[in-house]
Amino acid sequence: MEVKSRHHLRSDEIDEIVETIRETFEVELDGDSFEDVTFDDADERIVLVDGAPYVVFFGGEPSLTVNGAQAFPPESRVVTVDAGAVSFVSDGADVMRPGIVAADDTIEAGDLVAVAEESHQKVLAIGRAQADGSTMVGESGKVVESLHHVGDDLFQFSV
User: Fold this and answer.
1) CA 73 to centroid of chain Cα atoms
2) Which of 59, 79, 85, 86 is nearest to 126 (CA)?
3) What is the 3-state secondary structure (H, E, C) of 69-88?
4) Cβ of 56: how many Cβ atoms within 10 Å?
5) Domain boundary, last residue among 71, 88, 105
6) What's the domain range around 40?
7) Using one digit for the tens of pLDDT, what is the confidence trace for 108-146?
8) What rounded mean pLDDT belongs to the chain?
9) Are 142 and 82 in contact (CB under 8 A)?
10) 76-113 per-residue burial string, b: 16 or more CB within 10 A, e: under 16
């Protein structure tokens, strides 16, 4: 990922991002420095918080990155998968109902969600819900489209 531009955000932009992350994942994103980064070879726009890639924009909507969710564990919009799904989700696969053991009931189709593994609650991916949280546990069907996962270019990005 080749950096196209990098600049510090204004305080009103920072406030908007922090508020959206608070409303989405119920975490308090805390940092002294917020820098906007765009790339030549990728559509993603990220925000470095104290130099770490903790926020990414999907369709203009800010979300925690996997790194951000590991540093600031989400309290809401979490989908939890069993051990059998971990390798698939970590490789970027969409999340299927049979692998889900729990999902936040407040999730609505279209929401950004964090996908965490069951035993340690480590976030493995960020995705977009394809179903409401109350209907995610079940027998068949894709319920979360993977947008960003452990090991992808964004996860490995550093400045």
Assistant:
1) 11
2) 79
3) HHHCCCCCCEEEECHHHHHH
4) 24
5) 71
6) 3-71
7) 999 999 999 999 999 999 999 999 999 999 889 999 999
8) 93
9) no
10) bbbbbbeeebbebbbebbbbbbebbeebbeebeeebbb
Domain with residue 133: its CATH number is: 2.30.130.10
- 128 secondary structure, DSSP code: E
Residues 96 and 146 in one domain: yes
CA gap 58, 37 in Å, rounded: 14
DSSP annotation of 93 reads P
Residue from 60, 59, 71, 86 nearest 25 by CA: 71
Q: How many domains does the chain have?
A: 2
Amino acid at 25: F
**71, 98, 118 - which closes a domain:** 71
Residues 55-85 have pLDDT tens digits of 999 989 999 999 999 999 999 999 999 999 9
For residues 85 and 28, membership in a common domain is answered with: no
- Distance, in Å, from the CA atom of 145 to the CA atom of 27, rounded to the nearest integer, reads 22
Question: How far is 2 from 47, CA to CA, in rounded Å?
Answer: 15
- How does pLDDT run across 77-118, given as a tens digit for each residue? 999 999 999 999 999 999 999 999 999 999 999 999 999 999
